[in-house]
Design goal:
Layout lengths: L5 H7 L4 E4 L14 H13 L5 H4 E6 L5 H13 L5 E7 L2 H11 L6 E7 L2 H7 L4 H17 L3 E7 L6 H13 L2 E8 L6 H14 L6 E5 L6 H10 L4 E4 L13 H10 L1 H5 L14 H12 L16 E2 L2 H5 L17 E2 L7 H10 L6 H18 L6 H19 L4 E3 L8 E4 L2 H8 L8 E3 L3 H8 L6 H13 L3 E5 L13 E2 L2 E5 L7 H4 L6 E4 L11 H7 L5 E2 L16 E5 L3 E6 L10 H11 L5
Parallel strand pairs: 1-2, 1-8, 2-3, 3-4, 4-5, 5-6, 6-7, 7-8, 9-10, 11-18, 13-16, 14-19
Antiparallel strand pairs: 11-12, 12-17, 13-17, 14-16, 15-16, 19-20
Helix pairs in contact: 2-4, 2-13, 4-5, 7-8, 8-9, 9-10
Length: 609
């Protein structure tokens, strides 16, 4: 065979060669790549190295003995991607398998076969029912067979860590003399620890001739595939097996994207000033290839997947947003990734404003505060950290529409946090009652959301100062509805629509995301969001189905639970912190009785003086 072995030349010259296993060994990880995708992946991976793809990538296209379809897929890669990579077929150590593997790649430029031979007695007994030394010796004739068919031959020592190092070294030397291009040392069971891995490759290097090219094939069962491969490189190995996304049997093997990025981006720290490349890889192509592989084999990229995960280049918290370089090991721009600010429950006001600017939304201070509170509540409601930009824009738009509707005197349905149902609000009781389909003069609770309004309102309440403060705590923290006694002859005009039998019905909680709707609106009346005779709406969808189209519905807390919601509990408040139960509701139902709930309130707010 007169043509040069580009892989051997690269390795012997100190250059790095990736032995890509995602199409072949990845199948043992219960994944399948179509023939079309194998060709595409081989071309894309070779393109990372420009015209030097065949010198830097051996693409294990398949195991032809599996079936006719696998043979055909391997053959297509060999014929259609040979200019981009060095294509390889993998086979067992039998004459028939070697013949078949050679047929799958023969005629392609830089075609190779890898013959898997058991290296330890335990593995040899399982695979070929004979001693490992015999199996290794028999592989010499198989290498010659492949070479005679015009194909470069490589040999994989399966289960090498449990083999005798001297036996391996002698076999590697004999196989190389017979024409083997690369000797792949495989940690088949994924059992190697890092120190032992480095020692194994150093011991082999010391015992073989300078013409023997060793390669690593290291699994990730203990989470050490990457560290072990770097240890092999540190010991002088220049052909390294890897797989996109680490896919392979059991827990996989070293991930191509991680290994390639580290060796290219941190070369000096890992191997000194050695030049590993004929053409340095274009690292900006890594994320796109990883996404393509993910889509093909159905293995999702997660937020925490190194190098190519969905969290790379994203910022969601305050300090990293201000000083990103202090919180990242490398500039994502190296991978062609532009930093992106995302909204999560950890967002700060700065992060929120940055996202708003990106989506073309300008927020005032009140809207910023409200939107930030909504983002955090929405994330917990959905049990999903990231809030999509479109949902954020929809909330801000809905908030502004709701604020405009309230100020125009129209009825608006507003959400509440669990376990409360939605409420309907308007500046007059008549509007609320009309929307609910009940008599216009029916009393409707007064919504006293602002502290300044409460101070004004409290002057008309016939309660001692301590009880007023106690009532305010119940309104704000418990989100109760209260019946408060009014001073005789002191009923303000704006409270008359909420007064009956000398008591005013009051709701005082203000869920933070609603501030821009409620602030500055006075008077404001509120009631459960339901038509007369129907149960209160537990979700925006229920509210829209229930009310007429002119009733605006603010859509928020999209993922919040619908079941288990109820209207607020109503209590009557008297002097000296006296409480009496007036209506069952969401707050008291978790207690044995209304009296038990009142006892709980007295104990919880005993420090209010």
């Amino acid at each position: 065979m007169d043509k040069p072995d580009l892989v051997r030349e690269s390795a012997l010259g100190g250059r790095l060669v990736l032995w890509e296993e995602s199409a072949r060994d990845g199948a043992q990880g219960k994944t399948l790549m179509s023939a079309d995708f194998r060709v595409r992946l081989a071309r894309e991976q070779g393109r990372m190295f420009g015209g030097d793809g065949p010198r830097h990538v051996v693409f294990a296209a398949g195991f032809p003995a599996v079936c006719q379809e696998e043979f055909d897929a391997t053959r297509r890669v060999a014929l259609e991607a040979a200019g981009s990579v060095s294509p390889a077929a993998v086979c067992r150590a039998t004459t028939a398998d070697v013949q078949q593997a050679c047929e799958a790649v023969r005629g392609a430029s830089n075609a190779r076969v890898m013959i898997v031979v058991p290296a330890s007695d335990e593995m040899a007994d399982a695979m070929v029912h004979q001693p490992a030394q015999v199996a290794l010796a028999d592989a010499v004739s198989l290498v010659r067979q492949a070479r005679a068919l015009g194909v470069f031959a490589d040999v994989c020592f399966a289960d090498a860590p449990r083999a005798d190092v001297d036996v391996l070294a002698a076999a590697a030397t004999a196989l190389t003399a017979a024409g083997a291009g690369v000797i792949v040392v495989a940690d088949t069971t994924g059992d190697l620890l890092v120190q032992r891995c480095g020692e194994l490759f150093r011991q082999l290097t010391e015992r073989v001739g300078a013409d023997v090219v060793l390669a690593s094939h290291l699994h990730n069962d203990l989470g050490l595939g990457l560290a072990n491969t770097l240890a092999a490189v540190g010991a002088g190995v220049r052909v390294v097996s890897s797989s996109w996304l680490g896919v392979a049997e059991r827990s996989g093997m070293v991930a191509t994207e991680q290994l390639l990025f580290l060796l290219a981006h941190r070369t000096a720290e890992l191997v000194g000033e050695t030049d590993l490349w004929h053409t340095a890889p274009d690292l900006a192509l890594i994320p796109a290839i990883a996404r393509q592989v993910s889509a093909e084999i159905g293995l999702p990229l997660t937020v925490t997947t190194p190098i190519v995960g969905t969290g790379v280049g994203t910022i969601s918290t305050g300090t990293p947003f201000v000083r990103p370089k202090a919180f990242q090991p490398y500039d994502p721009a190296v991978l062609g990734i532009e930093p992106t600010v995302v909204l999560t429950h950890l967002a700060s006001a700065r992060v929120l404003r940055a996202v708003a600017e990106r989506v073309g939304v300008t927020l005032d201070r009140a809207e910023t505060t409200a939107a930030l509170a909504w983002v955090k509540a929405e994330a917990f409601s959905r049990n999903e950290a990231v809030i999509p930009d479109e949902d954020f824009v929809r909330f801000v738009s809905g908030l502004r529409t709701a604020a405009g509707a309230v100020r125009a005197g129209d009825p608006v349905v507003l959400p509440n946090p669990f376990p409360l149902t939605s409420v309907i609000a308007a500046t007059t009781a008549e509007v609320v009652n009309k929307a609910k389909g009940r008599p216009a003069d029916q009393p409707v609770a007064l919504w006293v959301a602002e502290d300044e309004r409460w101070a004004e309102f409290a002057e008309a309440v016939d309660l001692d100062e301590t009880t007023r403060r106690f009532a305010r705590e119940l309104l704000v923290r418990e989100r109760l509805t209260l019946l408060l006694p009014l001073l005789p002859g002191r009923v303000p005009d704006w409270a008359r629509q909420s007064t009956r039998d000398g008591h005013v019905l009051v709701f005082g909680a203000c869920w933070a995301p609603l501030r821009p709707v409620l602030d500055g609106v006075w008077p404001l009346h509120v009631s459960s969001a339901n038509l007369t005779g129907s149960r209160p709406a537990a979700s925006p969808a229920e509210a829209r189905a229930m009310f007429a189209p002119e009733v605006h519905v603010l859509d928020a807390l999209a993922g919040a639970p619908v079941m288990g919601r109820a209207a607020t509990t109503t209590l009557r408040v008297g002097r000296d912190r006296a409480l009496a139960h007036a209506r069952d509701g969401a707050q008291d139902r978790g207690h044995e009785s209304p009296d038990a709930y009142i006892t709980y309130l007295r104990a919880t707010y005993s420090d209010v003086r």
